[in-house]
Amino acid sequence: MERRNWDIERVLFSLPAIVTGSALNFHIVTRKGGVMLITLNWQLGVLGVPDESEFVQDVLTRIRAPLTDFVAVAL
Predict the structure, then answer these.
(1) Which of 49, 50, 68, 74, by CA, is between 20 and 30 Å from 57?
(2) Mean of the pLDDT values across residues 57-71?
(3) What is d(CA 44, CA 24) in angstroms, rounded to the nearest whole number?
């Protein structure tokens, strides 16, 4: 039996918001030498802010900056 090598180059996944779970659900995937992907899900109406999309974008921006700095130092 011939064995073939293969490699996963990119993964994207997301899960639905969990009604009985936390208000924000983070899902993170990465691979050695690859990119890190973070998705953020929430149940509409539970965040208690006027603009949920703007709030979530702000959260992701605040997470991205320290991770970017960390990667720059680690390399």
Answers:
(1) 74
(2) 88
(3) 10
CB atoms within 10 A of CB 46: 13
Q: Residue 60: CB partners within 8 Å, gap ≥ 6?
A: 38, 40
Three-class SS state of 64: helix
The model's pLDDT over 16-61, given as tens digits with 9 standing for 90+, comes to 777 788 888 888 888 777 778 888 888 889 899 999 999 999 999 9
Residue 4 lies inside a defined structural domain of this protein: no
Any domain includes 5: no
Q: What is the pTM of this model?
A: 0.68
In a domain, 57, yes or no: yes
**Could you say which DSSP state residue 47 is in?**
S
Range of the domain at 45: 24-74
| Tally of structural domains, the chain | 1
